[in-house]
Amino acid sequence: MRSGYFAYLATAAVIALPTSVQAAPVAPFSFDTAYGRLPKTLIPIDYSVSITPNAADRTLTGSESIVLEFRHPSATIIFNSLNEVLRDVRLDGKPVKAVASSDEQQLTTVTLDSAATAGRHTLTFSYSGKIESGPRGMFAQPYVKPDGDNGLLIQTKFESTDARRMFPCWDEPAFRSTFQISVTVPAEAAVVSNMPVARRVVHDALATTTFLRTPKMPTYLVELSAGDLARITAHTDGVEIGIWAVRGQEKQGAEALANAQQILADYDDYFGYKYPLPKLDSIAVPGGQPGAMENWGAIAYNDQLLLLSPLSTILNHQTVYSVQAHEMAHQWNGDLVTMGWWDDIWLNESFASWRAAEETDLRNPGWRWWEGEDASKETAMSADARITSHAIQQHVTDELQVTNAFDKAITYNKGEAVLRMLEGYLGPATFRKGVRAFIRAHAYSNATSTDLWNALSAASGRNVGEISADWIEQPGFPLVAVSATCDAAGKRTLALSQQRFLLQGADSRPSHWAVPLQIRSGAAGAPQAVLLQQDGQTFKAGRCDQALTLNAGALGYFRVAYDAATLQTNAAQFGTLPDPDRIALLDDQWALVQAGRQELARYLALASSMGSDLDERAWMQISAALETLEYAERGKSSHDAYIAYAFSIFQPVAARLGWDSRPDESPGTQRLRRTVLVDLGSWGDREVIAEARKRFAAFMADHSAIRPDDQSTVLEIVTRNADAATFEQLHQLARSASNETEQRRYYAALMHVRDPQLAAQAAQIAVSSEIPPQSAAVRLGLVGGLTFENPKLAWATFTANLDMLMLPQGRYAAFITAQLMPETLWDAAPPDEIETWIRAHVPAEMADNVARSMEIVRFKLAQKTSLAQAADSFLSARMASRG
Ligand SMILES: [Zn+2]
Fold this sequence. Notes:
By secondary structure, the protein is an alpha+beta fold. Strand 19 and strand 20 form a beta hairpin. Residues 294, 326, 330, 349, 352 line the site of zinc ion (ZN).
């Protein structure tokens, strides 16, 4: 294996790679050349939209008056519409000649008697439309109130192309306009939109509320909520900040309100551009979309991402902060400055993800947030190490398929990692200078990636566009191979080369990256930021007896293969390395094992070298690897020997941590305890199972016996090993919980039961009506939760209930079905059966997504076999060495 490893390095060194592969031409934003289906002959300047939803029969009526700027004389007006019937269509008060709407095209074409002159005209009409059941367009969200009564909220979700479901409009991001929204609902209902209320008129049982005119913005950011909502407010720097929730729950938004004040002040400063709206509301929607949506001035969240109570865990608190930081970053990057077309959706999402991580880390240093974000980077690198992966920037030719571009692993996580790497290379102050210039230059307008690179280039004096093109416009990332030589005085020189890193197979397309390296020699040395541009490039790097990292601070989005001697030095000094450097080494070595390019023993030697260190991310990385190996060993005669080995790694950690958290512990240490105990419990550690059962009994007698943070640990261990009576106890616990946070926790625990008959009951519960309507989006996760112990059952439940599971996912349903579910259910059925079924249940245009997920399914199956073999060799060698 050692010689094979050298052979691999040699291969990597001789491949000559050209620069700028697959670089699609990208230009600065221009309205005229921005991609889109709608003609640019006329531009909407201002909309007045009046909506009357009829929640009972799921219909709406509306009227619009749109001021249009005709750039050229035209006899046709083309805009988007869907499921709407237009009546009394007039231009400047005169009836038009013809109106034709096509739901298939999602377009309405208005024909005039004769061409209207260039200049301003006003288009007016009334219309009727539809209220949706799932989170797209205007939708009705049923929920069960804390007192058991039924409630109904009217809510909107427009990104990417669903504003047209509520009102006919120019529904492409380059068409920015002002909007004056007006809504008529029962007088007792509260209403929220992007802007503060301008006036409210009550007439009989109804009230019409008109909101102030918005600034110029795209349609997908318009927002409207109506229902039995209440709010709490605060003021920061002249902006009214509000948290809305179902009446009675608004006080659970207190922490989110405090977070929002802090984040707003920080972002005003970071972007160097004051938040421009008079108010910023956040709405806790009971259900709706699973995530959150950055509507300008009126951010909508699934309520579980905004509300906190004494029953919430640290993870809940962290989720709320980081999701707020993400959505609020969009108020600048996304809302104030919008991508010109959906190709550049990464500009919105990567940027918001990166900014949110920085802000969360800044304000919560004890959370060690960037270490946790390493897990999201690993998710991206795992997806991106496939031959079927795609570039961050994807050309979207059909706006109706834009959802495919919201591939979380690539669009969010890879983009975040690449921006962090660039920031590290340019330096935070220079990077911020560029971002500020970018925001200032494109405020109330649109931008492309090129605009951002130009701003960063101007700020730094470097050609940022050239560096970033490698990372944005082509898929994948490099494996940088290091070959160190030492001179007589022991000084080290590095020769570096690169090739695309793939977990399986080879890429015949040549590819090359300009790689921003952070080279650190020795555990305490300051890293040196350099750019690897050419193969064979050499760098001086300390002395040969010092540990070496090319990815100091784990800032980089690439992998490193050190030559054997350097790796040995690194392993020997592993315990002294800074945490991020150690994490990067663990990540890379595990990926090389997965790719069949490194011996398992080399990786496991690093795990053994952790010793008494309790760094959470490093141990979480090891936990994931040990879990993967355990799964591969299941059903084999060597399983017991493997478990004995895994115990030898984790039992000392568990012994150090104990069961009870201490007040001075970081959230990371507490999470590490949970991970280690759950692993040990699931691997059959008798003492751990017995202790969990004892604690569970105490919990059933008195729910305050276990802190919310520690409940999942105990519940998961107990459920996994539950008999029928215990399972029923747990089920009763879930059914009787009145708080949604608790309820979700208990139902999630139920899905871990190992016993097949009880698992079948759990599957029935996941798709039953006892899951309240506001938790409908959770059903999918519950079914996914069955996978680890009962994959075939998970597959059967998923395929039998597809429509029910996907309705709450809105427009992401096809993406989830084509890509995420096969990756989760990879061992649930033969791959051909999975592929045939998936292809039959998603639109034909999802073919690339299916190819991606099926590559992962087949890789994971092959890996299961190869890892089991590698583990067996490791275990035999271990037995032999112990005599
Ligand atoms: Zn986002």
